[in-house]
Amino acid sequence: MFEITPITPEFAIGPQPAADDFSVIREAGYAAVLNVRPDDEIGEYLVSANARLLAEDQGLTYAHSPSDNHALFEADIIDQFERALTELPKPIFAHCKSGTRTAILWALAASRQREVKDVIADLREAGQEIEFLEDELRESAVKAKDSLLRLKDDALLSLGRSKLLGDGRRD
User: Fold this and answer.
1) Radius of gyration from C-alpha coordinates of the chain
2) Mind giving me the DSSP string for 117-152?
3) d(Cα 148, Cα 29) in Å, to the nearest integer?
4) Which residue from 66, 70, 87, 133 has the least number of CB within 10 angstroms?
5) CA quadruple 91, 97, 100, 105: dihedral positive or negative?
6) Is residue 89 reached through a cis peptide bond, with omega within 30 degrees of 0 on the bond before it?
7) DSSP helix/strand/coil, 166
8) Could you read off the pLDDT tens digit of each residue along the chain, which spans 171 residues?
9) What letters, b where the CB count within 10 A reaches 16 and e where it falls short, cover 138-169?
10) What is the 3-state secondary structure (H, E, C) of 29-61?
11) Cα separation, 67 vs 53, whole angstroms
12) Which residues, in sequence order, are bridge partners of residue 14?
């Protein structure tokens, strides 16, 4: 069975959807699908052009922001993911092969706006254990300030105020 794992009220992750899963995503209330899996990745799955058609047939907005596992911490990959988060309608369902790469990219983007410990706690609550990346998350957040592709201030302020990256409050 296809599983959607909410991280915040406006963002969820999951595995690569099959053709029939796009209706599940829509029925769960999501407005957009963000695919971070490259089309040339090994394995059997829907390539982005086919996934886009299936998503759009369900009334979902679709974006492809490919990232290889080895490139997750590169500033341009995080910038591209962050830009997609600001441009897509909410709530967003994001996927890769299993959901882990997407969780890490969300953590990298969220760590630019929030305390790393809170980002890790949100993911832990959702069943994603990424504590082992705490140092990398902190380092990436510091490096983000130097990125040439970094979002402009108005988009960053909007992203920081949204529920997309969580609210930073631990209940």
Assistant:
1) 15
2) HHHHHHHHHTT---GGGHHHHHHHHHHHTT-TTPPP
3) 35
4) 70
5) negative
6) no
7) coil
8) 899 999 999 999 999 999 999 999 999 999 999 999 999 998 888 999 999 999 999 999 999 999 988 888 888 899 899 999 999 999 999 999 999 999 999 999 999 888 999 999 999 999 998 889 998 898 888 877 666 555 555 555 455 555 666 665 444
9) eebbeebeeeeebbeeeebeebeebebbbeee
10) CCCEEEECCCCCCCCCCCCHHHHHHHHHHCCCE
11) 21
12) 95
The CA-to-CA distance between both ends of the chain, in Å, stands at 30
Instruction: For residue 1, give the DSSP letter.
Output: -
- Residue holding tokens 């529920």? 163
Token readout for 18 is 């099959």
